[in-house]
Specification:
mainly beta; Sortase, Chain: A; 8-stranded mixed barrel; 12 strands; hydrolase activity; hydrolase; Sortase_dom-sf; Sortase; Sortase_F
Length: 208
């Protein structure tokens, strides 16, 4: 996907696993039209942004994800580094920390050589599901999913996904869309979420 100066292209979409069930390929689940923005946005009230603090762990109860978060930098070609191992996920360390004001980016594999990986079930998320990020400051930032959409690489909406936000927002991204045995997945699944609450120590308010 192109970055248009907003964020370097992600490098987590070289899917290498495709199970053959007879003549029919088995591919990761895709979000339904009911979870797209066009069908309406989830309306949980937004919590005030938190002070910046690096994330250490991510949980998505709906799809049984509980994974450490590695800090991701840039590869030599300007793309986002790939998390090590299919069970790992990472956050873009050159951008917003989850829970702080702006748009934070988390990425992970949909599969690896051994089968389904950490975000295989991302496309099954529903509006209103929770995404929890435990941070170094001891605060757990609790996000509400607003929408889940899938985009082909040549139509990826950079500004919609990566653009600046007034509040604290989160994007969780993995591979998706059609699979090409030569080049991998031809798109991305993106879960959009906003900060709806916090658990843990009372954070210092962020001034507007």
């Amino acid at each position: 996907m192109k970055s248009n100066g907003l964020l370097p292209a992600l490098a987590v979409c070289a899917g290498v696993w495709l199970v053959q069930n007879g003549a029919r390929p088995v591919t990761p689940p895709a979000p339904s039209a009911a979870e797209a923005f066009a069908a309406g946005r989830h309306t949980d009230a937004a919590a005030p942004p938190l002070p910046p603090s690096p994330p250490v762990r991510l949980r998505i109860p709906r799809i049984a994800v509980d994974t450490p978060l590695a800090r991701l930098g840039l590869a030599a070609d300007g793309s986002l580094e790939v998390p090590s191992g299919g069970g790992a996920a990472g956050w873009y360390g050159g951008g917003t920390t989850p829970g702080a004001r702006g748009t934070a980016i988390v990425a992970g594999h949909v599969d690896d050589a051994d089968g389904p990986a950490v975000f295989y079930g991302l496309g099954t998320l529903k509006k209103g599901n929770r995404v929890e990020v435990l941070r170094e400051d001891g605060v757990t930032a609790v996000f509400t999913v607003d929408a889940v959409e899938v985009y082909e690489n040549d139509a990826f909406p950079d500004r919609k996904v990566y653009g600046a936000a007034r509040g604290a927002e989160l994007r969780v991204i993995t591979c998706g869309g059609p699979f090409d045995p030569r080049t991998g997945y031809r798109g991305n699944v993106v879960a959009f979420a906003h900060l709806a609450g916090v658990r843990g120590p009372v954070p210092v308010p962020v001034r507007s």
